[in-house]
Each structure stands twice: as C-alpha cells, then as structure tokens.
C-alpha cells in the first residue's frame, strides 16, 4: 500500500505499521487507530477516483490492527485458550509474503501490457508423440492376416425395410382449402387440422394459407389478438390448374 500515515509514534506505510506491531517491535496501545482511520478518509476524499482494491486492502489491514488492539486491551477469561503470538506472527508473515508476490506479479503484467506484449512464452515444452517404430512384417504375415480376416467375416443381416409415414404437402392442404371454399364462404383455420395436430401439420397448413393469400384466392381475418383465424373466398377464382399444382 503506497499510502502513508503520520502518527506521533510512527510515520510510514500502513502495512509496515502492521508488520512492526505483529513482530512486537511497536506497542499497539501507543497507536490511535481512530487517527489512522481519519487520515485515510481524508486521503480518500482528496482522490478523484477511488480504486476498490485499495479500499479492500486498507479494510483488511485496519481490521487486523483492530483485532490486535482488542486483544491487548480487553481482559481475557483465564480458562479461554490464548493463541500464541508466534503463530499469529507467522500467519501475518505468510500473508504479507503472498501479498508481496502478487504485487510483484501485477507490476510485471502491467509493464508487459504497456509495452504491447500480448504473447507469452510457453515454459513447459509440448509433449511430442513418439515416432512409430518401423514395421517388420513380411508379405507372408500380411497374407495370413488377410486369410484369418476372411474366415471371421459374418454373413450380412437380412434387409430391413423402413416404413416412412406419408408426408403432408402444401398442394394437398391447398386442395382441402379449395374444396371447403366451394361449399362454404368462411371456415376456421383449425378445421384444417386434426384433433392432435403435429408441428409439421400446422406449419404446412399455415404455409398453404399464406400461398393462397398471396395469390388472392382467399382472404384471412383475425378479429382479436390470438383469436381464431378465419379463411374466406378471395377475388381470384377458386379453381386450380395443373400449373398451380406443379408450383406448390
């Protein structure tokens, strides 16, 4: 942390203050943590843009200082186990060392980014496949393998015929529409579908309606949103021709 504080008993970076206190080189009771917080808040108010990482780092170090000072000032129960200072110091040293390594790595990455370096060298060499050993087979060995393979061949299974269901075509639906309009003036689009229509049936039927609508053979009305679609006679003749059937 580049931010420095100024106190009667210490002047320097905040992480250094924490390190000295953990190593018992500085008395925590001589440090006013309220003054530390006030100075940092004043420093933050002067910044144009506050980095979230710096705030998180300050909160982490300040929380550690509050914990250490609370242990030094508050009385402890005689039966409560006390954590050894050496263990806390080792834990803090490990955290500071990890922080130092991450900070150095971040600095290296920043330098690489500013220099336009977008590729990185692969440290571990790629695993290359082993070269195949040269073949030592003779022609006689190959002929024997072919003979054994011919003996193992099984007869092919009997042919299985696959029965495909008849597909609905646009021309077929157009014929249904023309036949209905010869008997009635209007009918519901759902009358073209079965009781439980498939997706294919709905799509083909709707396609046929759009094709006849484009040719002005029919007119389509839908009075309400998502309401029934009514199909009626259009201005063009209803009779179909061979050319129409070929086009559909």
Taken as a percent bin, the fraction of beta residues is: 5-15%
How large is the count of helical segments? 8
The computed structural class is mainly alpha
| Uncertain ranges | none
Rg for CA atoms = 43 Å
Strand order of the largest sheet: 3-5-4
What is the average of the pLDDT values? 77
Characterize the biggest β-sheet.
Answer: 3 strands, antiparallel
Descriptive overview:
- This protein has 248 residues and is mainly alpha-helical.
- The chain folds into two domains: 4-74 and 83-114, no CATH class; 170-247, Arc Repressor Mutant, subunit A (Orthogonal Bundle).
- Helix content is 50%, strand content 7%.
- The chain has eight helices and five strands, in the order E-E-H-H-H-H-H-H-E-H-E-E-H.
- The strands form two sheets. It has a three-stranded antiparallel β-sheet with strand order 3-5-4. It has a two-stranded antiparallel sheet with strand order 1-2.
- The chain is flat and about 105 Å long.
- The mean pLDDT is 77.
- Keywords: Chromosome partition.
């Amino acid at each position: 942390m580049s931010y420095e504080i100024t106190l009667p008993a210490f002047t320097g970076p905040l992480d250094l203050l924490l390190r000295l206190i953990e190593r018992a080189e500085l008395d925590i009771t001589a440090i006013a943590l309220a003054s530390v917080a006030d100075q940092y808040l004043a420093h933050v108010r002067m910044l144009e843009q506050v980095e979230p990482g710096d705030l998180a780092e300050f909160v982490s170090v300040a929380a550690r200082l509050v914990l250490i000072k609370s242990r030094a000032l508050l009385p402890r129960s005689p039966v409560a186990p006390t954590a050894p200072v050496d263990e806390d110091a080792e834990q803090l040293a490990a955290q500071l060392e990890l922080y130092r390594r991450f900070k150095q790595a971040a600095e290296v990455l920043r330098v690489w980014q500013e220099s336009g370096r977008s590729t990185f060298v692969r440290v571990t060499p790629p695993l290359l496949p082993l070269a195949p050993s040269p073949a030592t087979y003779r022609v006689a060995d190959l002929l024997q393998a072919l003979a054994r393979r011919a003996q193992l061949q099984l007869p092919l299974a009997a042919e299985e015929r696959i029965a495909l269901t008849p597909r609905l075509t646009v021309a077929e639906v157009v014929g249904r529409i023309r036949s209905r309009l010869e008997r009635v003036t209007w009918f519901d689009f759902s009358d073209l579908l079965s009781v439980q229509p498939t997706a294919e049936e709905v799509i083909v039927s709707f396609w046929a309606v759009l094709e006849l609508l484009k040719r002005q053979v029919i007119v389509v009305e839908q009075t309400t949103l998502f309401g029934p679609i009514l199909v009626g006679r259009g201005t063009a003749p209803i009779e179909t021709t061979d050319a129409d059937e070929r086009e559909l």
